[in-house]
Design brief:
The chain is of the alpha/beta class. It is built from 13 helices and 9 strands. A 9-stranded mixed sheet has the order 8-7-6-1-5-2-4-3-9, sandwiched between helices. The termini are far apart. Helix 10 links the parallel strand 7 and strand 8.
């Protein structure tokens, strides 16, 4: 016979989060299932495993170099011996795949979300969702973005959050490139669970450990950077670092003065990346990183130092700043990164 239970015992058996029951979550449309013994064992194993750091590269409007900085930070962290995953979560204009020569119509971020939701994600497998690439001496994994912006609804908020947490368990450093807009329609979100265009950016900022806010040093980019830096604490609880990109020679003092007068008082620019259009253009044409195409560029030197501090890296394992023979930025077709499995 079944044991009689009191009302308090029955209420105590109901989970606080009703999504644990066998119901369809209205936010994702996925069937939620209660945690099994296997899931509990995996959770206990994950709890004992040191979680990786999620670093989100974000900016205000425009194109101040988010993808460029994300690639460079990931490459430098990998050169320092870190286990790195680079994620393109820009649902408006993804570009990391094109920048690294990973051409194709496959979306790594969509495949990642689907595999994590289905419970089939394997951090050690070389798949389109977690492709292993080599850039010079750096070996890292890349999750490419959307080949078409119209597919943004395939990257759900809950699915992306679980995917980033899965990558956190698989890597020491997870660097995420996101879109600039970070505003949702609050009226729509209050009335319905329908996905919104900026969910990916807001989700990444929510789970981040560090947020790098980047902007340019020109008359248009600097005010945008100031507004983004002032707005960032409302979007994330992470540590915020302000990076000024494309700083002309001798302009650092002027940028600091402008920031003291018009910028938020709670934070100051930490990194000033000099302007070196020739080196950056060569890396873009060769579909590689500065550490491979222009290792002696002053841009690379500043980013390398910042990456080692941000990712808590030891001294770079690569022979530092080797002398480049021949022309300083001679284009080479063989500098494109090699992909373990095609994407």
């Amino acid at each position: 016979p079944l044991e009689e239970k009191s009302f308090d015992e029955l209420v105590a058996g109901i989970p606080d989060d009703l999504s644990q029951l066998y119901v369809v979550d209205p936010r994702t449309g996925m069937l939620n299932q209660p945690e099994t013994q296997t899931d509990q064992a995996d959770s206990q194993h994950a709890a004992g495993h040191k979680r990786g750091r999620i670093i989100v590269v974000w900016s205000g409007a425009g194109a101040p170099g988010r993808s460029f900085l994300a690639i460079e930070l990931a490459t430098e962290a990998a050169l320092a011996g870190k286990k790195v995953t680079l994620v393109d979560a820009d649902t408006r204009a993804s570009s990391i795949a094109a920048r690294l020569g990973m051409l194709g119509e496959t979306s790594g971020i969509v495949r990642l979300c689907r595999s994590v939701e289905a419970g089939t994600f394997s951090p050690t497998a070389d798949t389109d969702a977690h492709a292993r690439i080599r850039i010079g001496k750096a070996v890292l994994r890349v999750t490419t973005g959307l080949p078409r912006p119209s597919r943004w609804q395939e990257v759900g908020k809950a699915a992306l959050k679980r995917s980033l947490e899965a990558l956190r368990q698989a890597s020491e450093v997870v660097i995420v490139d996101v879109a600039a807009p970070a505003d949702n329609d609050h009226d729509v979100s209050f009335d319905t669970f329908a996905p919104q265009r900026d969910d990916a950016t807001l989700t990444a900022l929510e789970v981040a450990d560090d947020v790098v806010v980047v902007g340019t040093a020109d008359a248009v980019g600097l005010p945008r950077l100031m507004r983004a830096a002032a707005y960032a604490p409302e979007l994330t609880q992470a540590r915020i670092s302000v990076v000024v990109n494309q700083v002309s020679k001798g302009a650092v003092r002027g940028v600091k003065r402008a920031w003291e007068r018009f910028g938020p008082k709670t934070m100051q620019p930490e990194v000033f990346i000099p302007k070196d259009a020739e080196a950056v253009e060569h890396a873009l044409e060769a579909a590689t990183a500065l550490s491979h195409s222009a290792p002696r560029s002053p841009v690379r030197a500043v980013i390398r130092e910042f990456a080692q501090s941000l990712c808590e890296c030891e001294e770079n394992l690569e022979t530092p700043l080797k002398q480049v023979r021949g022309r300083r930025f001679k284009a080479r077709l063989n500098t494109a990164p090699s992909v373990t499995r095609g994407t």
